[in-house]
């Protein structure tokens, strides 16, 4: 792997615009909630898809940066701070959890695998946050509670995101091939 793989080709106006559109689309898609969990988390209409596409197109660093910026916007600004319980919790649940979606950028030739890896990393960030900060809601072992609670909304959200990402990625491939 070269250092070029780890850096966006350029941080030019086109890249910044693409990242901005991806972040805005993720924010708009986040508003379409199919199901909302009681202590936070929801199934949406593909919030992660624009961030996955950006990571696959522009590489992991671009995906990390855009995901973290989106996480900050969602967790601190768009929510009005209502999801802010502890500083470390907010960092884990938002910039870290959405930043790791950039891992998909390591696998542009196998996007399904990249999306799976990135989704598992996001799940891990939320599970860790649940273990560290939301144990008071557990009726049994905290680890089992966090694994289950986060899987209830993230698994369906990931399935939606994988299907939509692959459909968009395939279409983008056909568009580029026809040029």
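Sequence proposed for the structure above (179 residues):
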């Amino acid at each position: 792997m070269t250092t070029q793989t780890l850096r966006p080709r350029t941080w030019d106006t086109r890249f910044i615009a693409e990242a901005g559109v991806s972040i805005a689309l993720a924010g708009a898609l986040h508003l379409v909630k199919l199901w909302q969990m009681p202590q936070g988390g929801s199934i949406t209409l593909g919030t992660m898809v624009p961030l996955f596409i950006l990571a696959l197109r522009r590489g992991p660093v671009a995906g990390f940066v855009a995901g973290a910026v989106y996480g900050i916007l969602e967790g601190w600004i768009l929510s009005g701070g209502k999801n802010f319980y502890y500083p470390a919790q907010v960092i884990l649940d938002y910039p870290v959890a959405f930043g790791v979606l950039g891992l998909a950028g390591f696998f542009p030739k196998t996007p399904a695998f990249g999306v799976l890896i990135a989704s598992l990393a996001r799940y891990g960030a939320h599970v860790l946050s649940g273990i560290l900060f939301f144990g008071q809601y557990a009726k049994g072992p905290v680890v089992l509670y966090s694994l289950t609670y986060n899987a209830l909304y993230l698994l369906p959200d990931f399935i939606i995101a994988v299907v939509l990402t692959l459909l968009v990625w395939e279409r983008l491939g056909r568009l580029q091939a026809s040029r």
